Every structure is written in C-alpha cells, then in structure tokens.
Amino acid sequence: MTPTTEVQRLITTRTAIRHEILVNPGNRYLEYVSASGAMIRLPNVIREFDPSWEDVPAPSAETVIIHRDGTLYAVGTAAKTMKGKSAFDKGKLSMMQDSVFAALEPSYGQSILRVENLKIAVPDVRNGEAIAQSQKLQGTFEYTRNGQDVITTIAKVTLIEEATAAYNYGVKNDLYQWLDAVNGVIDFGGGTSSGRLYSPDGLMLREASITLPGTNQLAQMIQARLLKETSTSADLSAIMDGIESSSYQVGRNGASFMTHFASCRDQWLDDIRSKAISQWQPYLNDLGEVLLGSSRDTCKIVPRNPRTLITDGFHRSLSAD
Q1: Which domain of life does this protein belong to (predicted)?
Q2: For tag attachment on the chain, is the N or C end more exposed, with fewer CB atoms within 10 Å?
Q3: Cα(206)–Cα(197) distance, rounded to whole angstroms?
C-alpha cells in the first residue's frame, strides 16, 4: 500500500465515523443534524409504497426515501401530502425504529457510516417502549437512503429526557431568574406532556415527575366542536397545522376553527395548570419558575400575557401566577 493510498484510507475511515448523532423524533417533526452539520426538520410522517403499482416520490430537501428490510417508505413532506402515518396520531415511539433511519446519513461520497453514540430524545428514559425501540436500533443495518446503498453500524444508543434538555437550555440561556430555587419544565407532547422539577444543583426530582394532557387533547377539543358544526371529523394533524400556520383552518380550503381556538386553548391550559399545581403541591413553597413548551408550535398555543415571557420557543411561567 502506497503512502497516498494509506492516507486516503485513513481519511475515508475518519469521515465514515460520526461520534455522536442527536435525533429528536417528535410528535410532529423529526429533527436531526445532517452529516454536513445542517439542522434538518422533516414532518414526522411515514408513508409506505408498493412500487409495483404506486409512483414513489423523488427524494428532496423535505423528503427522505428509505428502502430497508423489503419495505420502501418516505419520511417527510411527501409522506404527509400522501396521507401517511403521522407520529402525532400513531405515536412517535412506535414509529421511531423507522423514522430514525432518515437521520442516518453518511458523509458525502461515503456508503458506510459508524455511529459511536446515537442519542435519541424521548419523553421518559425509563419508558419500557422507548427502551425496547432503542435496543432494536443498536447493531449493523443495510438499507438504501435516497437511492444510495448504505451500511450503518450503531455502537451505542442513548436515550435523553426531553424535559432535561429543555431545562439545560433554560439554565444555559438564563431563562430562570432564581437558580437557587426548585425550577421545572412542562414539555408539551402530542399524546401527553411531561412535567419535571429540578433541584438547585440541576438534579431531576424523580418523585415529582408527572404526566399531563398533550396537544392531542387540544386538537380533539377543537375537532369535537368542528364535528358538531360541520358534521365532519377533521384530521387532528391538520388542526395542529392550522395552529402552527396561524390560519386556524383545516387544510387550505377546509373549515375554520378561529372562533373555537382561544376557548379550547384556555380550557386545555387550565387543565394542565390545575393538575400540575395539584401534583406539585409539596414543592410549591420552593418553586421558582416553570418553562412551558420546547417546540415552535408552543408559541402559537400559549397566549402572550404580562406574566408570561416568551423566549426562543419557551414560555416562562411565574409560579406566582
């Protein structure tokens, strides 16, 4: 082997290894950092295809095409347009084993990828389904991604608590006024929301972990009112799209829920607030602040008011409210 060939081999080996990939398979979006370092955000929707009779969409910046274990599927905008399975409706953990492969992208010109530590954000790292799904992702896999044959080896999978990531973000960006107090996070999810409290030294108080209503409940409340009004059951994901876009409308030409949104939102937030206060009663005397949110959609859900500070997608809710 010549010195030049050896150098090329070492460069190829080095670029084939990614020491860490962080993936957030959310209820509405799959988020990850690409091999080039760009933040990618795809609708977390999966649509399977039978190429013998269906047209398969082409890969794009918003759609990833995966062919693995005999199944051909799209993740992203094309899957959403073609009414695929949404994590918001089906559950992000149940779809995680398929959706995560969209994020497993080798460096340009490479066909092999080794991931030393695949970090996946989940609502609760102790959840049995999350643990089971993550274990299935450890090993070596052969698949086609956007028409390119890929062999990926995942050495280790680490689950990261979503609320803890939000808490660390809040501390790092000075969103908490009293770091010597017990502070918390309510992370809005689709099926459920997660409430967590942290001691002044940043230790999660596990006994204070609570489960609260998710944005799915808000969408269902709006859906019920639209059903009574139009005799048609609106798609829950389409309702959330309407909230995110501020159109407050189902799809491009569907029913408007503008007149229902504020009252449904306030009722939903009141339910979350009352349950959190009830379950966190032992900690209220020492509570500083609680961040509400962690997603872009939250800014469209939680109303602005003089005692709520909206910062980078987070809402700082004073415990004195």
Answers
A1: Bacteria
A2: N
A3: 8
Structural domains of the chain in order of their starting residue, each with its CATH number: 3-155 (3.30.420.40), 162-318 (3.30.420.40)
Find tokens 């962690």 and name the residue: 294
Q: Say if CB 271 and CB 195 are below 8 A apart.
A: no
Environment class of 211 (CB within 10 Å of its CB; exposed 0-12, middle 13-18, buried 19+): middle
Structure pTM? 0.80
Q: Using an 8 Å Cβ cutoff, are 209 and 166 in contact?
A: no
Q: What are phi and psi of 29, to 5 degrees?
A: -135, 145
CB within 8 A of 175, min separation 6: which ones?
169, 289, 291, 309, 311, 314, 316
Note the pLDDT tens digit of each residue in 169-189.
Answer: 888 888 888 899 999 998 887
Around 147, how many Cα atoms within 13 Å sit in the side-chain half-sphere?
A: 7
The DSSP result for 171-203, as a single string, is HHTT--S-TTSEEEEEE--SSEEEEEEE-TTS-
For residue 313, how many C-alpha atoms fall within 13 Å in the half-sphere facing its CB?
12
The residues, any chain, with a CB within 8 Å of residue 215's CB and separated by 6 or more, are 27, 88, 188, 189, 190, 193, 240, 297, 301
pLDDT exceeds cutoff 90 at 98: yes
As a whole number of angstroms, the distance between CA 249 and CA 266 comes to 18
- Residue 271 DSSP symbol: H
Q: What is the mean pLDDT of residues 271-290?
A: 89
End-to-end C-alpha distance for the chain, whole angstroms:
71
Mean pLDDT for the chain overall: 85
Instruction: Report the Cα 295 to chain-centroid distance in Å.
Output: 8
